[in-house]
Amino acid sequence: MATAFARNQWYVTAYAGEVGRDLLGRTVLGEPIVLYRTEEDGSVVALSDRCVHRRFPLSASRLDGDRIVCGYHGFTYDTSGACVYVPGQQRIPRTARVTAYPVAEIDSLVWVWIGDPQLADEKLIPRAPHLADPEMVSVRGMEPIDCDYGLLVDNLLDLSHETYLHGGYIGTPEVAETPISTEVDEAAGVVRVSRHMMDAACPPFYSRSTGIEGRITRLQDIEYFAPCLYLLHSRIMPVGRTEPVFRTEITYAITPAGPGKVYDFWAVSRDFAREDDEVTKFLHDFNHTVVMQDVDALNLLQKALDGEPAGYQELSINIDTGGLAARRILARLAAA
Ligand code: FES
Ligand SMILES: [Fe+2]
């Protein structure tokens, strides 16, 4: 069963660093969007990625100053999406305009509002300040997955899979063995899942980045701001000690691209070994490997589900409490 899309919401569409003077095409909730940054003041523009003439992708076209010139017959659009030039005639048809999407660049993320522009309110955007905090060092990436975005939400809200899918990377037996506590704020659309492991093996992700050799106290506190932003606040310390505390913030943005397609934006931010480029490279490459384990699993899972008869039964247990709450919230947002 596909998870319904929630419109009238902000979605992470790119990292700020991805948007510049090269046209970038992304698809959000099935809507093709072209992104670029203006010469005038460096602000990000998000327009519909289909020329009104014959629907040529504007992302495959070119910029002339802050205007996009369609690469097929030259229809030219300004930053508001209005067509300001058509070839071979003076009169510009009244309907010659592409949608301009509300955009907000916050915490090094480019958020685009999908829905009624009148309702776009930047104050609704959940924050991930660590991504732009000079006291933290971040590595990041994005992987497209061919799966229902609900499968990625499920995956991230239940980290007991770390023990099995990511064993030897970030998983140890204690993750699956330690019960979770879940808190749901239905009205705000926020799900919080905590797992506090007081005496756990230290997986390579943390031993190689922090230098800790023995066992650790490992605190995982998840906050999911439906539909798009997921934060995992991770705190590691040597077992039996209260310091030093190694703080890692793991961020995901879950952006449905279209039916059965999702962008998996991921970032790892840390407050330790900040000058150490080897740690930076290690965390980037290692986390990319971990993300690809999820990507492969979710691509496979979606294929398996596609072959199931309609109305298949699932079996849920305690570890699924957060994921089930997220599904309820997503269903409510989609119906709104
Ligand atoms: S398709 Fe864009 S100008 Fe013809
Ligand atoms: Fe995972």
Automatic annotation (TrEMBL):
Keywords: 2Fe-2S, Dioxygenase, Iron, Iron-sulfur, Metal-binding, Oxidoreductase. GO terms for molecular function: 2 iron, 2 sulfur cluster binding; dioxygenase activity; metal ion binding; monooxygenase activity; oxidoreductase activity, acting on paired donors, with incorporation or reduction of molecular oxygen. Residues 10-112 form the Rieske domain. The keyword Flavoprotein does not apply. This is Aromatic ring-hydroxylating dioxygenase subunit alpha. PROSITE patterns: RIESKE. Pfam families: Rieske, VanA_C. It comes from Actinocrinis puniceicyclus.
